[in-house]
Structure formats: C-alpha cells, structure tokens
Amino acid sequence: MPEKPIERDQADPGLAGWDEPAARLKEAFEKDEFALYCQPILALSGNERFPMGEVLVRMREEEQAMLPPGEFIPVLEHYGMMPELDRWVVRNVAQRLAAGSRLSCFSINVSTQTLGDAAFPGYARQVIREAGVPVDSFVFEIEEADVLERAEAVARFVAAMKVVGAGVLIDGFARKAVSFAPLKTVGAHFVKVDGSVVRKILQSELALNKLRAILEVGRAIDLKIVAECVEEQDVLARLKAIGVDFAQGFGIAQPQPIESFAA
C-alpha cells in the first residue's frame, strides 16, 4: 500500500506544525475538510478489470492544498480521534456508492483504535443500510501487526464484520517473518502481500518462493491474494503468471479523487 500511518504510539502532536492540533482537527471534522482518494486494484483474471479500490484520505489545508496522511494521521492517533475519522470514511464511501460508482467495492483501512471500538461495526452496518448499498461493497483492511499483537480485538472485529456481511483484508502481510497462523485463524477474505516482498520477486528467489507459499496457503483456505506496490510491468506479468488474484500500485493506477470514479 502506498500510504500508511507511522508506527503506532509514536505520534507527536506538534508534527503538523499546528499551535492547537486538537482544535484544528475538530475544526476539520466540523467543516468537512477531509477528502477521499482511491487507488484502483486490478484483477489479474476474470472480466472485471478493476473490481475494487483502496480508499485513501487527504486533508484540505490553506488554498485547498491537500495534506498527505503522514501529516495528520499521527496527530489524530495521538488524540484518540481515529475512530471518528474511520466513521467519516465509511459514511462518505457509502454516499459515493449510493450516488453511483464505476468501482463496485472499496477497501477501507481500520485503525488500531477503531479495532477496539465495539460500536464501530454497528455504526458501519447502520450507515450501509441507510445508504441502500450492498454490504459486500465494503472490505475493511487490518494491519498484520494488529493481527499479531491484538489478536482478541481483531477476532471480535472480524466476527462482527462477518455478521454485518462486509469483507476483511489482512494488510502488510509478510512485511517481516511469514506466519501463516493468522491467515488460518482470522477468517479474512483477502490478504495483501507487502511491497517489500512484491518488489523483489524478479531478483530474489527467496521473495518469489515466499509469495508462492502465500498463494498455496491462500488457495487451500479460499483466501484471495493482493500484491501491493506494483510499479513495473515485468513484475505485473510475473504476478499474473504465478496466479496472484489482484495487483495494486503506481505502475497500475495512481490514486485519484474518489469523485473520479462516479458512474
């Protein structure tokens, strides 16, 4: 994935250079100053070229400049405001789907704080129902680090999302050592292989074998595999040849305002 928050619990409230960051973020919510972008995810087989897109968030600043997530996500994390942002994202994605979208499904990153928010799945279900859009139009992305370090919270979240009917994706898989236990126990629908593996599959037999092993396990438990950070056509060709299901990266499609995908 091209954009991710910094490591958890490392947030510095002065990171964005704001004098009163909590007040500034509250104002951003009140004035609806966040914006959704989307990066399409390519299907490497089948008839639907782009069946899904990952939702990315920007924040409007002076003169309509867009701040990248690294400028404001750490501040939101510091003040415990990530569940509010995640709710805002779900609400606005539902509105986009209801208005018409050329992408039939969106994946939404779920913060560590939101995983611990027992009310979030119910909120998502209510918003999706009120928008009148299919629940399987939503896939919620959980970081592998959270799967490994917060197993109970993740298990509760996944169980709740299965009741809702939304999909679940494990993100950043194999960033460090590969452990297949989470793939077998979490019950996710997708796993996104980290770019640190994907970028090396043409030069490193180890990286290629690691990806093949993930594919083998995925097929055994009916788990779809997404390769992220695809930047070269040769890499894309190899991914398709070995049977990867989906690919995402700047070599495939750049992030665009979500309005660009209106039907």
Q: Can you walk me through this structure?
A:
With 263 residues, the protein is of the alpha/beta class. It has a single domain (21-261), classed as TIM Barrel. It contains 11 helices and 10 strands. An 8-stranded mixed beta barrel has the order 1-2-4-5-6-7-8-9, surrounded by 4 helices. Helix 3 (82-99) runs parallel beside helix 5 and helix 5 runs parallel beside helix 7.
| Spatial strand sequence of the major β-sheet | 1-2-4-5-6-7-8-9
Number of H/I helices:
11
CATH fold title: TIM Barrel
Global morphology = globular
Q: Looking at this structure, what is the CATH superfamily?
A: EAL domain
Largest sheet: 8 strands, mixed, barrel
Give the CATH class: Alpha Beta
* CATH-scheme architecture: Alpha-Beta Barrel
Secondary-structure class: alpha/beta
Mean pLDDT: 90
Count of distinct strands: 10
Distance between the termini: 25 Å
Rg, Cα atoms, Å: 18 Å
Give the helices and strands as they follow along the chain. HEEEHHEHHEHHEHEHHEHEE
Q: What is the strand content?
A: 15-25%
Poorly predicted regions are: 1-14
The tally of structural domains comes to: 1
Which range best describes the helical content: under 10%, 10-25%, 25-40%, 40-55%, 55-70% or over 70%? 40-55%
